[in-house]
Specification:
Number of helices: 14
Bound molecules: fe (ii) ion
Structural class: mainly alpha
Helix content: 55-70%
Strand content: under 5%
Radius of gyration: 20 Å
Distance between the termini: 44 Å
Number of strands: 0
Order of helices and strands: HHHHHHHHHHHHHH
């Protein structure tokens, strides 16, 4: 029996004023999470197709229940992010082409790669999520709170559920194959494919979102050259020809040690015997699940939280 819960939440993306740069204090992180939203639609469609194909082949009832719940959570994630992206494409219709391109890159894998390969790809990428999202959720005050509450809320929900189902992809993979090393062996090709997806979406941001609405280059969030350029501008300003003030790095103010720890855990997650079950988890996840069980307005996380803390104070 699986502990996963499928939570259907109505997020608030009906308006025409959902900003692309949803956290103006952190343009790079804003772009990075918009990338995640596109990924949520493209990659999660890929997950749903692969897990559906795997289901009839899974004999162990516990693994089957896990696969089913995993599939449903991912389908609900993709649905919510589709609404987020629809709010963006109402403002920037051309951006739909970028979304289609990203979906196309994953559809092609669905058509051409073996089921084993696709499940290994999914297990590889899903294994990186707990260390990445722990870093983000541990620094939620800095990264999410200053942003648009509607957008921040969808990501907070998605990331706590990713932490919740951190073992699912590996359980499905192990139910289909006993090749322990294959997952690590295909990693270089997974990275190459991800680079293609990053480029397609980063270039799409530049092409379809006007620069005044995104502040930074749409590729800055994944290019090391951005941080190098930024550091030069900060430390040796006379060397820089740019007249613009440097924008903060995505993780400005996040303790260095936490970034390095997260990086170490991401590397460890790609080793053959990695088990996500025993990963350190963000405290925020428990807080979120508690609030959800109380029936809090999860779609407006920070406004709800502010309302409840001010009523406590009065
Ligand atoms: Fe997801
Ligand atoms: Fe996931």
């Amino acid at each position: 029996v699986t502990d996963l819960q499928v939570r259907r939440i109505e997020f608030d993306f009906g308006g025409d004023d959902v900003p692309f740069e949803w956290n103006t204090s952190n343009p790079v992180f804003s772009v990075e999470l918009n990338f995640i939203s596109v990924m949520a639609v493209a990659f999660e469609k890929f997950i749903v197709a692969a897990v559906r194909e795997a289901l009839p082949k899974i004999t162990d009832p516990e693994a089957k229940a896990e696969a089913n719940a995993f599939l449903q959570q991912e389908a609900v994630h993709a649905g919510a992010h589709r609404k987020h992206l629809a709010a963006l494409t109402r403002r920037y219709p051309g951006f739909q082409r970028t979304i289609d391109e990203a979906v196309g890159l994953y559809d092609e894998l669905t058509r051409t790669a073996s089921l084993e390969y696709r499940l290994a790809y999914i297990a590889d990428l899903e294994a990186t999520f707990t260390p990445i999202f722990k870093l983000w959720l541990d620094n939620e005050e800095r990264l999410f709170r200053p942003g648009d509450d509607r957008v921040a809320s969808v990501f907070l929900w998605h990331f706590v559920e990713e932490v919740e189902h951190r073992s699912s992809a590996l359980i499905v993979y192990n139910a289909i194959t006993d090749r322990v090393y294959y997952r690590t062996r295909i990693l270089p090709s997974v990275v190459l494919h991800l680079r293609q997806v990053l480029r397609a979406i980063g270039n799409g941001f530049n092409e379809h979102i006007p620069v005044q609405d995104r502040t930074v280059d749409g590729r800055d969030f994944y290019r090391p050259s951005f941080n190098i350029r930024n550091n030069i501008r900060k430390r040796l300003p006379f060397l820089s020809r740019s007249t613009q003030p440097p924008v903060p790095a995505a993780y400005a103010g996040v303790p260095r040690i936490e970034i390095w720890r997260s990086f170490g855990r991401i590397l460890a997650s790609q080793t053959p015997h990695h088990n996500p079950t025993h990963q350190p988890l963000p405290d925020f996840a428990d807080k979120w699940f508690g609030k959800f069980d109380e029936g809090a307005d999860i779609a407006h996380w920070y406004s709800t939280e502010l309302a409840s803390s001010s009523s406590r104070a009065s």
